[in-house]
Predict the structure of DUF829 domain-containing protein.
Amino acid sequence: MPPKQTSSDFLVFHGSVDAEKSSQTPSIILLLGWMDAPLSLLSKYVDGHRSLFPTATIVLVKSHSAFLWTSAAAHERALQPVIDILLDGIYRTAEARPSNGGLLVHALSNAGGIQLMTLAGIIERRLKEKRERWVALSTITMAFVIDSTPGSNEYESIMTTFTISINSPILKGALRLPLTLVYIAYYLINNVLFNNPTLLPLLHRYLEQRRLLPGCDDETPRLYVYSDVDAMVPSASVDRHLSRLLAKKIPFAAEKYIGTQHVSHVRQDSKRYWGAVEEVWGRALRQREGTRPKGKL
């Protein structure tokens, strides 16, 4: 079935009408792309999810560098279609709605992580307004796939983002000055003038929480995928993050690839990649069937 394009930044792929719906399949898969990712590459992830979960609705959210420069109010306006889909499909009580299979979130790179962090804050606020009837949060099945994030050193991350495809060392060096000036302007406007926090440390703190979205509990499974040679998100940054999760006894699984670059791990070993995705969702289902702590906002 062709996707429904709700805007230039969102695509909704509805599940197969021929396949039998099952409560073992997520109702919605939220796929959060890396910055300025081409649709041709993001579509590979859509295809992978479709092969595992043919009846799920896949919501693809693209990310653009302009997101870094806009206000929180602008973020909420931009993400409104996604917020509506999640509220209607996961959180809102509706007697006519089929059994809720749950939500699988797949965040790619720092940009995808930041989009998830932004959505989490908005949805939490909306639920607390209590203007609607919401499902019991303890009934929501969730799992997270966190690929190529969280990174560190925002300045170096931005430099690498905009120069990674350039092979010439001379051209890379020449671009550092204008990019540095742009970064300084961004820092002065975003951090000094508007007193907004630096995004990557904020992303680290967010991912160190036990509950990444309303409806999560202390055991909600997550899968981290990263590599030893990623030029944009060093493995040391992810390793430090995972060590902090261990210290807090926050459960996770990790797949550390050897020799793969940023958001390209699936291309090295797609069977391993999608097998791990299937397993993290399987853990969410097994958790649902057992005794779960009550989900909270």
